[in-house]
Amino acid sequence: MDTKISIRDRKISVPVKLAYGTGQVAEAIMTNSIEFFLLFYYVQVLYLDPILAGTALLLSLVFDGISDPIVGAFSDKYHSKLGRRHPFMYASAIPFGLAFYFLFSPPESYFGISLFLWLTFTAISLRLSLTFFLLPYYALGAELTENHTDRTSLVAIRSLFAFIAAMILSIVAFTFYFKATDTYPQGQLNPEAYPAFALTFAVVSVIVILIATRGTQSQIPFLHTNNKETMVTDSFYHFYRYFFRELGAILKNRAFLSIFLVSITFFILSGLQRALVLHMNTYFWALETSKIQYLFYAFFASTVIGIPFVKYIINWLDKKRTMYVGLTIILMSFVLPTILRLIGAFPDNQSSLLLPALIFSQITTGVGMAIMVVGMGSIMQDIPDNQELQTGKRQEGLIFSFIGLASKTTSGVGHFLAGLTLSLISFPTGENIKPGDIPNDVIFNLGLVYGPSVLIFGLVCFYFFSYYNITRESHEETLKTLNLRRLDAKNKIT
């Protein structure tokens, strides 16, 4: 039996699904640690100039995006006894753990430019090491199954692991590392907490990468290997020539172009929002550390609870309409509290209603995020099939690297904009800056950036996504055509 042809109907065991989902934990640890804590740590705790901090994060993401084509192309073309994907995944584990720890553990003597250079180097190292794992990992997900529904289920498991990991990270961070003390009533301002926090999750990251890689190794004989030529010995020039040649071809795919533009817009939005969320909770809403953690718990718990139900929504509405629903929920629940506060129509910081209102907002935002994450992940699994129909090539690695390039570089733009914002509004830095120390006009300007600006990016996402044109019916027809092609090719060889 030809395993390449039978992959569509082959059942993946539960242990393999769980092992694959485990890999998303590493990405969740890095993303949430960087986006929620890193800018705050370097600016408010280590007193690095916010423009320098934002620039360092932008540079790391740009470098990461540039490296994606090499890793993606190399992964697509690589041949070994461990297949195309797994050698890269194994190689990433230890470098990732070391880079994560050092990112949150700069030498005490470093400040100013030396601290900026440390942040830039360690952030680049961390993202590059994760690229070696994540691009082959995502491409592997598209190869494990071709079934429309099964791919949604696999993405749901992966997403569930991601948000469970993010929720556990926030619980552990605020309960054990960033808890309030007499010296630091705002526990997230304690400089000694961050290296210990980083060491714990560096070890966890290494373990889950190895579990995901080893746990899916049994599937190597069933994976696609249709690209026969090797590029192992090719130069960087040839990689990038290959990259841009294929990018031109892939951009002709309407579905891919739509998701590419959505990714650019959404990750600018996400990078800006996540980089400023701890500033907002600490200073705009003036919440104590013990209350901030409730917002994180509410968001991640509602996301985790919502993820298993998304596949039923997709089966009911199809993927495109489901994404519209998720994006609408996110924009309404996320942006509305800030806008209402700016116009004086939201509970003030002394009100007993403030925390419940913010928790409710986080719960609904989490539901919307569950829909978006599963929906987007499932959509991405369908695009390689559509591209193979048009060009005859299996290019999962490249397709995911293109999306990675868009998401990483634009998320870096969001981080840079966050740092630039803090500088332009003259947000103060210094030891133990308290909420009451921030001028009212600075607080207002922070909310202005965090609310209406995010809404504009969200509306642009709606516009770009309207061009996405893969439906359940068209995808089923695509798979039928591809299977007939493969069967015909097999018969000709025979």
Structure annotation, total helices: 16
Helix content: over 70%
- The CATH architecture: Up-down Bundle
Report strand %.
Answer: under 5%
What do the pLDDT scores average to? Answer: 83
Task: List unreliable stretches of 5+ residues.
Answer: 1-8, 226-233
Q: CATH first level: which class? A: Mainly Alpha
CATH topology: Growth Hormone, Chain: A
Radius of gyration, in Å, reads 23 Å
Question: In terms of structural class, how would the helical and strand content be classed?
Answer: mainly alpha
Order of helices and strands: HHHHHHHHHHHHHHHH
Number of E strands: 0
Counted up, domains total 1
Distance between the termini: 13 Å
Task: Explain what you see.
Residues 1-8 and 226-233 have low confidence and may be disordered. This protein has helices spanning 3-6, 14-22, 24-45, 50-77, 86-103, 113-144, 148-177, 193-215, 236-250, 254-284, 289-342, 354-391, 396-424, 440-450, 452-465, 472-493. The protein is built from 16 helices and no strands. The protein has a single domain, classed as Growth Hormone, Chain: A, CATH 1.20.1250. It has 494 residues and is mostly helical. Helix 3 (24-45) runs antiparallel to helix 8 (193-215), helix 10 (254-284) runs antiparallel to helix 15 (452-465) and helix 12 (354-391) runs parallel beside helix 16.
Key descriptive features of the protein:
494 residues, Growth Hormone, Chain: A, 16 helices, 77% helix, globular, disordered N terminus
